[in-house]
Amino acid sequence: MSEPAQQQHPIFAIEKLYVKDLSLEIPNAPKVFLERETPEINMQLGGKNQSLGDGLYEVLLTVTVTAKIKDKILFLVEAQQAGVFRINNVSEDEIGPLLGIGCPNIIFPYLREVVSDIVMRAGFPPVILNPVNFEAIYRQKKPDSAVNGAS
Asked: At what angle do helices 134-141 and 103-121 cross, to 10 degrees?
């Protein structure tokens, strides 16, 4: 007979979601409110994570949204949405995808709402950020060592 296995179950929990930083600039106000053309919206997205110890990790998404008409900036929003996650009893191979895919998928809708809200409060129509495929981004950044498999 085998010993009773006291196997620890994996734990993945959201401890806290929060706006870490938020900035709005309207450098050409109030003249930009007279513009009638549809602006060109440019979005840049970044992310990072760090271990806080004891199975806690902070995952941070940063977005910069710039709206322009020709070379005139209507507005510039920079936002950082973060989360603290508890991850215990998970193998090292599974932590990377959780931090790079799972957590950003949880955080991104909150980031989208923050950007839309601040843009509306600034007097512009809301900007709805398009969905992001965090799995594809994670796979692009991951080294090719796993592609060839073990021999």
From this structure: 120
